[in-house]
Amino acid sequence: MSVFTLIVFKLAAGLLLDRLFGEVPRYHPLVGFGRWSNAVEARVRAWSASRLAGMLAWLLAVGPWVGLALLVRDVHPLAHWPIDIGLLYFALGGRSLTEHAEAIALPLEAGNLDEARQRTSWIVSRDTSVLDAEGVARAGTESVLENGNDAVFGALFWFLLAGGPGVLLFRLANTLDAMWGYRTQQYLRFGWAAARIDDLLNALPARLTALTYAALGRTRQALECWRRQAPSWDSPNAGPVMAAGAGALDLKLGGAAIYHGQEELRPQLGEGSAPDARAIRAAVSLVRRGILLWLAVAGLIALALERLHA
Strand pairing partners for 126? Predict the structure, then answer.
């Protein structure tokens, strides 16, 4: 059995665990990592808040855990099985993404705008208190499309490439970007390394995610929206993902949004109709079908490699 075949078996196991159990309800490792990162930030900031200090903080926050994963998976010939599968399970957020999306779509569909706004605020960083129904649907749909890369396909890519330690590196880097990667006065310099490293680790996965969305929806429109609209988006990775996703779903996303009390006029993403509760569910379906596609392609590659080595 080839190394890649072993990885695919582990990939399927991790996806199954995420599908069955979702996120750990208590004592999630990323919560502990957040506390660790806050402690590291406090210590390093006492010395400096420069870009160099931010890079040092990133290394101190992420390095020990990736190093530990590399060591622990080799303590026994079979240790790589539970370590790799466990790390993938903790890194994935497929079921959680579905649950959060449905928690927005249900009250939105029922006309309970206040609850839909509140639920949306749990998964986006924009101000949701003044959003109308279309604004809530837009925010929810954009979040599902973007997090399809961050919480699913990016994790699958790095797991296929580097196993458990690879997916751990990706997930911790993504978490630090969410904590430190803001262009605010506090993090403009200190968070520079976190934002750039996350951009680097996401560069190829984001474009594979965009291709996945395009392949499973209105392909020509998705590719055209990616080509025309993604370069004008603020994030080099979120742009392709959301433009292709919006085009694939025949939706018009983007537009004005309020972040940290400031209104941002964001470029249009996609083409087609305005989003509603059905659009949120359509985005979830796109991600879930994408997971099946990735699993099928990985399985076919593994089968081809087995035959080559037979």
Answer: 259
Q: How far is CA 262 from the centre of its chain?
A: 25
**pTM, full prediction:** 0.95
Tokens of 287: 């991600």
Q: Domains of the chain: which residue ranges? A: 3-308
Rounded to whole angstroms, the Cα distance separating 4 from 293 reads: 17
Cα→Cα distances 159→22, 87, 146, 155, 260, Å = 18, 9, 19, 6, 34
Q: Torsion angle, CA of 55/60/62/63, rounded to 10 degrees?
A: 110
> What span, in angstroms and rounded, lies between the C-alpha atoms of 169 and 34?
14
Residue with tokens 């742009």: 239
Q: In the 8-state DSSP scheme, what is residue 184?
A: S
Dist CA 112 CA 189 (whole Å): 41
Tens digits of pLDDT across the chain (310 residues): 788 889 999 999 999 999 999 987 777 888 899 999 999 999 999 999 999 999 999 999 999 999 999 999 989 999 999 999 999 999 999 999 999 999 999 999 999 999 999 999 998 888 888 899 999 999 999 999 999 999 999 999 999 999 999 999 999 999 999 999 887 888 889 999 999 999 999 999 999 999 999 999 999 999 999 999 999 998 999 999 999 999 999 999 998 888 777 777 889 999 999 999 999 999 999 999 999 999 999 999 999 988 887 6
